Amino acid sequence: MNQINEGGNIVKNPTGQPATQRINQADVDPTNAWLEKITGLPLQSNKLGTTGTSPTSGDIDVAVDQSKITKDQLVSKLTQWAQANKQDPSKWIKKSGISVHFKTPINGNVKNGFVQTDLMFGDPNWMSWSLKGSSPGSNYTGADRHVFIASISKARGYKWSHKNGLLKRDTNEPVSKKPDQIASLLLGRNAKGSDLDSVENIHKMIRGASDYNELVADFRDSLAKIGKTMPEHVIEGSPVWFKGLLAKVNL
Q1: Given a cut of 50, is residue 3 above it in pLDDT?
Q2: 190 and 184 in contact (C-beta within 8 Å)?
Q3: CA angle, 116 then 119 then 125, to 5°
């Protein structure tokens, strides 16, 4: 699985400390509205992950349609704004991976402090599903969801990429970027894309599978390393439950 390493305090102050702060949920849309005026991009309708749904966010993640504008063109727009306001663009704008990062005044006012906006280039429709965040109150993050999908993909003979979708494991050839089709290949014929929306939904779909242990192997190992456990016990009476019971009897 491709690592998801966008964002995360990219913009620093002269001492090397983060130049940005967390943003309250109520401030996300007004801040995006201000940035829309500078960029001309539809940012409020392209929020990603938990941006705007959590009480606070470490940054603002938004999708940018790469067919409409290039990273260099966006950097040019942001640079023009910085220069017009007598600011050094290098202290406000950074590039990494698929993103342009911008030190954004909260609500458009520097007196409120700054939040880092990660403008992530790709297909907004795909990214809104692929980079879906966890539900409020969930014990699992969006990154945990990707590890779970990757674990199941591996057991099914595929490879998962949050950028490129489901791939053939041996050749990296694309298989699908359609959520419903990906779900049917990984979870079963009648599965829908929404069944892959969260760790909890995914687990609910596979917890009675005869190959449950193979499907969750990499995910379980990943959770153990960060002190987390699986969402819930497997269904009593399911094939995997019997397998576990036999293992205990044979100890």
Answers
A1: no
A2: yes
A3: 135
